[in-house]
Design a protein that fits this description.
CATH class of the largest domain: Alpha Beta
Shape: elongated
Structural class: alpha/beta
Number of strands: 12
Helix content: 25-40%
Strand content: 25-35%
Radius of gyration: 20 Å
Number of helices: 7
Largest sheet: 7 strands, parallel
Order of helices and strands: EEHEEEEHEHEEHEHEHEH
CATH superfamily of the largest domain: SPOUT methyltransferase, trefoil knot domain
């Protein structure tokens, strides 16, 4: 039987008795109909999972006891950063969810010349909180004990400074392909995916100037919600832990 995993943003230690955050308590008690005495699994992003048991359910709080801890290593040897042009609504949520399931360690939402989504400071803060919630849920579901980082929305110029490892810019006309990477060791990379309207010529110039290489994934032009996920899966199969 699958035991529910829940993320809690607090220190956890075997032997501790903790008050569960309201959101976790609501999910366990009202959605999953759990009761005092039921088992669950907690994690806080430090690479460990903690077996826990619900001890008491009150009107104002739910208490759980931490019974045991174990290391969980489901992280890919290929550290992938996804530099993602901000997409509209559910598309962005889907991209984040699937990228995390496939093992991405960091996501940088980017505003660029052709971005259709424009965020002021207040909206950016709300979207960031929402995106981080999507990522946490994806980690809970996929079994990861480390939470992928979601950076605040930023300009392309700032985002290119955060390139980790080799940078790839998907381009169906690029001379380099996945096959051309061959057996070369790849420990970290950053994949740049444009918004619905794609990268503008100026965006491409910025990316190339920042060291991003054109990479041909195939002959077809992929949508923003398809391109990054396809590239992540392909690179994980060649250099990560899919296979």
């Amino acid at each position: 039987m699958r035991v529910t995993r829940s993320y809690v943003d607090m220190p956890l230690q075997v032997g501790d008795e903790i008050v569960l955050p309201d959101a976790v308590s609501t999910h366990l008690l009202r959605v999953l109909r759990m009761q005092a005495g039921d088992a669950c699994v907690l994690f806080n992003g430090d690479g460990l999972e903690f077996d826990a048991r619900i001890l008491a359910v009150g009107k104002r709080e739910t208490r759980a006891g931490i019974l045991a801890a174990r290391a969980v290593d489901l992280e890919s040897p290929l550290q992938i950063t996804l530099l993602q042009g901000i997409a509209r609504g559910d598309k962005m949520d889907w991209i984040l969810q699937k990228a995390v399931e496939l093992g991405v360690v960091r996501i940088v939402p980017v505003s660029s010349d052709r971005s259709e989504v424009k965020l002021d400071a207040q909206r950016a803060d709300k979207r960031l909180a929402h995106w981080r919630g999507i990522v946490v849920s994806a980690c809970e579901q996929s079994g990861r004990a480390r939470v992928a980082v979601v950076e605040p929305p930023q300009s392309l110029a700032n985002a290119t400074l955060q390139r980790t490892g080799r940078g790839f810019l998907l381009d169906p006309f690029a001379p380099g392909s996945l096959a051309s990477l061959g057996g070369a060791s790849l420990a970290a990379c950053t994949i740049a995916i444009g918004p619905e309207g794609g990268w503008s010529p100026r965006d491409r110039e910025q990316l190339h100037a920042a060291g991003f290489e054109g990479l041909r994934l195939g002959p077809r032009v992929l949508r923003t919600e398809t391109a990054g996920i396809a590239a992540i899966a392909a690179l994980q199969a060649m250099h990560g832990d899919l296979g």
